[in-house]
Records
---
Amino acid sequence: MQKIVITGGTGFVGRSLCEHLTAHSTSCRLVVPTRRLVNGRSVQVLPTVDLVQADVHDPRAMAAVLQGADALVHLVAILHGSDEAFDRAHVQLPRSLAAACAQAGVRRVVHVSALGVGAQAPSAYLRSKVAGEAVWQQALAAGGDLTILRPSVIFGAEDRFTNLFAKLSRLFPVLPLAGAGARFQPVWVGDVAQAIVQSLLQRPGPGPIVECAGPQVMTLQEIVQQVGAMAGCRRPVVGLPEAAGLLQAAAMGLLPGEPMMSRDNVLSMRVPNVASGKLPGLRDLGITPQGLALLAPHFHPTDLRAR
C-alpha cells in the first residue's frame, strides 16, 4: 500500500497505529485528517505521517483527502454524550465517510468498533456502535473489502482508563466503584494496532469481524486493584449497586470537563465486555495478546508521583 488514511489518527489508538505502520513500512504514506494541527508528542513527529487540516464530517473534504488512497482506517469514537452525539459520531460519520470513499474509489476499510455491541444493548454507545458497523457493511456490500475489529477496553501507557484509577488509588484510601463486578478482557493498545496492520496485510483475513481481547477476563474491581498494586497503592474497592452508580455518574456529569463516568457508561457495563469465542481473535492474526501486567514499569510509584 502506498497511502492509508487514518481518521482518529491523533488519538490514543491512532498514535500507536501510526508507529506500528511506520515500523512496518517507511514507504507507505500515512494521512491523518484533523480539524486543528497540534504540537507536542503526537503522530506528526513521524516523518511518514502527514497531518492535513480537514473536517472528517465533511464528505467533500474527505473525498479529497481519500483521493489515491489504498485504504481507510476509521478510529473515531466517543465514550460520553447524548444519544444525538453518539449517533453523529458512530453512525452519521461512517455514513459520510462511506460516501467519501465511494467518490474517491476507496474500497478497503478497517473499522474499529467494540465488544458487546448490539441493537438491543442497554446503552446508546453500544447501540450506536453496531449501527455504525451496519453502515459500513451496507456501503461495501457490493464489492468492498471491510474488516471490523471489536476490542475490549484498551490499555496502554497513555490511556485515560488505567491512569485515572492509578491516580484515584493514590488519592483515596477506599474506592467506591459502580459496576465493580462488570467483566472486561483488557487488550493492549499495541496489540490492537498490530491487529489493524495485519488486517490490512492479510487478505483474505481470518474473517470480516475480529474480536480483540487480552489473555485475561477480569472484573472492573480486579482491574482497579491490579492497577493500584502496580502503582504501589492497592486499595479496597466498595462495589456500588447500579442505582447508586447511576447517581454517582450523574454527579460526575455536573463537574467541568469530560466526566470520569457517565450514566451511559454504567448501563454499558451490564453487557460483559469479553470475547464471545465464536469469532476470530488476535491469535488468528498471529498476535499473542499481552496482559495488564505489561504496564507495571509505567506505574512505578516514583514515576506516578511525577505525573
---
Amino acid sequence: MAQARLGEDGRYRGDLPCRWCATLIDQGGRRTPRLYCRMFHRWKNYGSWVAALVGGLF
C-alpha cells in the first residue's frame, strides 16, 4: 500500500488510499492530506456513520 509522507516543508507527498473505495489519491504537496477521492464518498461515509448511530439507539 502506498503511503504519503510529511516533508520538511510541512507538505504531504505521495499517495494515500481513499477511505471509502481504496483508490490511491495523489497528495501533490498539500498541507492537509486528502482522505476521500470524491465529496460523494465523504458523504457516504458520514451517512453510514449517522445510520449506525441512529440504528444503535433503537
---
Amino acid sequence: MRHYAPFIGLRYSFSRKRNRFTSVIAMVSMLGMVIGVASLITVLSVMNGFGEELRGRILSLVPHGFVESGAGEIRDWQALAGQLEQAADVVAVSPFISDKVIFTSGRTIRGGVLTAIDPQREGRVSRIPQTITSGSLESLSQPGFKLVLGASLARILGVAVGDRVEVTVPRLTVTPLGIFPRSKQLEVGGIFEVGAQPDTFQAYIGLDDGQRLLGPRSGVQGLQVRTRDLYSAPRVMQALAGALPPGLTVKDWSQTQGSLFQAVKMEKLMVSLLLLSVVAVAAFNIVSTLVMSVAEKRRDIAVLRTMGARASGVMAIFVAHGLGLAAVGISFGVLLGVLIASNVSSLTRFVEDLFGVKLFDPAVYFISELPSTLEWSDVIAVVLASLFLSLLATLYPAWRAAHVAPAEVLRYE
C-alpha cells in the first residue's frame, strides 16, 4: 500500500477499539472545535451585518462625494453643477451649505448641524425623502423659515411638526444695543429617521433660507455628488479633481466617514483574533489526544517500522490521525455556524418570545433586531485557519511517534 499513512491514520481516528479515556479526550477536542468554529462564523456574520446596517443607514444621508470651495463660496454653482453632471459615472449634483448651530426649545438646548439644501435636487443625491416620517421635505421650499429635524433630535427638543425651534448660528449681529449672536425662530416642517447617529444632530433648511441665515451669501459652500457606484466614488472624485477650477477641493465618503468604517473593520479583526484563540485551544487539545494515542499505539508503530515503514510515514499517520479528528469538528462547526448565522434574527425573536424580553429596544438602540450577513469568504478563512492550527497541533505528537525505537518496544514481545 503506497498510501498507507492516511488509511491507517483515519482508521485510528474513527476506530471503536480505542481506549475509552482516549476516546473521551478526542470527543472533547472535536466538541471544542465545533463550538469555536461555529462561534467564529456566527460572530463574523453578525459583525458583517452591523457593518452593512451602518453603511446603509449613515450613507443613506451622506452623498458619495463633495466639491467644496477652499476659501469663500461657489457663486456660479449652477454652471459647475452642469459641468459635473456631464462627467462619466456622475448621476446627480446638489448644492449645500452646512454649519454647526445650537437648537433651543423651551429649556432644552442641543448642539447640532444645520445643512441648507435644495429639496428638488437633494432627493437625487441622498435618500432623505424616503426617510421622512412626518411632514415633508418639500416644506423647505415653502415661504417662511422651516426646517426638517432628525427623529432623535426632535424627541430631545420635545417638538413635532408645526412647533417652533430657535436656532442660534455662529454669526454676530451688530445692533445699537450691542453685539448679539444671530438667532432665528424656525418652524418644524418635517422629521426624518434613518436609525443611526445623524438622527441625533442633523437638521435641514431650504437653500434660500440657509443663504440668509448662515450667510449672508449669494453662493453655496459646495456641491454634493452622487456616483453610479458607492465603492467607485473615490476613483471618480479623484478623476474630477483634475478638471475643476483652482480653489476647489474634492472629498468622497471614504474620507468623511472612512474612520467610522475603519473602526468597524478593526473591531471585526480583533473579535476574530479573540475567537480564533478558542479554536486554537480546541486545536491544541488534539495534542493530548495524539500523545495518548502514540503511547497506546507504540507496539503498532514498532511493527510498522520493522515492516519497512519510514519515520516520515509514521509521522504522516499521526498527522492524518489528528487532521481527521479536526476535520470532523470543523465540518460540524461550519454546518452549525452557517445555520445559526443564517437564522440569527429568528433565533433572537424566539429568545425574546420565550423570556418575554426585548433584547434590542428601538427606543434605546438604532436597531430592533440582530443583523447578520453570511459571507462565504469568511467561512473559507475560518476553515483554513482552523486546519492550519490543527496541523500545527499534530506535528509534535507525530514527531514523537516517528522517533519510537522498535527494538525497545518489541524487546519483551
---
Amino acid sequence: MKTLDKKLEILRKNPGANEFIIADAKDADMAWGIACPGAPYPSNGDGRFYSMNEFMDQMREMTASGLIDIMLASNSVMSRLAHDEKLFVDSPVTPAIRANDTSDVWISRVANYRNKPSIPFRSADINEAQYGSLTAEPDGDPKVNLGLYSMTFNNDLDADYRSLVEFKAFREDAAKAGFDYFLEVFAPNVEDCGIPAEDVPSFVNDALVRSLAGVGRAHWPKFLKIPYFGPKAMEELANYDSDLIVGILGGGTGTTYDAFKQLTEAKKYGARVALYGRKIKDAEHPITFVGYLRALSEDKLTAEEAVKAYHGDLDKLGIPPKRDLEKDMELTDPGLSYAS
C-alpha cells in the first residue's frame, strides 16, 4: 500500500491525526518551458539550465529516497518513468500528473499570458496518464491514477464561469475512468481583480468550497492544495468540513526559513499536505532539504533548528549556501501566485 493511501485512510478516520503528506512537485515543464528544470548549482556562469534528462534523474533519486509520498510530474515525464520504467510499481511513492494547465501557468521567458484572467485548458489525457497511450485499452491496474486539477478564480464572471464548466467536464471524465484527483485553487492571477489583498484568502476559501457544493462526496478531491494565507484562513478551511483534507502549495522559492516555517505553521493550523516545487528544486541540496521537511512534519525539531542544521549539513557536503545563515533565517514574502 502506498504511503499516501495509508495516510489518507488514517486522516479520514481521524482528521486530527498527526499524519502529514509531502509531495515533490516536478511538473514545471507544464509551465516554464526550457527553464523548467532550473539551473545547476553552484553555477559555472554559462547560463544553462538542466536538461529534462537530468531533471528526471532528480525525480528518480527523490523517489528512491523514501522521503516523499507523491511525485507530481507532467504526463510526458510519467510516460517515461511510470510506464516505460515502471519506477513506481514497487515504490511506496504515488505517481501523479498535472491534469490541466490553465493559461495562468503558461510562463514563458518572453511571452506574457499570466496578467489576463485564467483560461481553463487541458493538454493531458486521462487514458494516456493511466495506460500510457491515448488509444490503449485498460489492461490491469493503471500505472498512474492521480492527477492535480487546478483553478484560478479572478472575480470575473465570464472567466470564472468557464473554469467551473471545465471543472465539471473534467470530473465527469475522471469519474468514468476511475481516476482520482486533488484540487488546487490559486490566488487571483490578475492584480486588479477588484478584491482587496486582505480579502483574497476569504475569496479563495469561498470559491473553493462553493465549487464543491454541487459535487457528490464520492467524487470530491482526495485533498486540496491552496496558498498558505496564514493561520486564520487555514483554520477556517480546515474546520469547514472534516471530509476535506487541506494542503498547501509552496509559492516562490524564498529562504529556507520561509519553507520550513510555512510547513510547521500550516500544519499547526490544520494543513496535512505540503506540495513544494520551486522550494525543493531550487534548494542547494534537495534530498537534504526534503529530509528536513519530513522531520518538521513529524515534529522532530523547530523550523529555526532545521535551518541551522541544514546549513551544517551543507557545510559537511562542501556545498556553499545561497545565503549566509543570518539571511537564510529571515522570513520573506515569496509570493502566492504560480508566476511569483
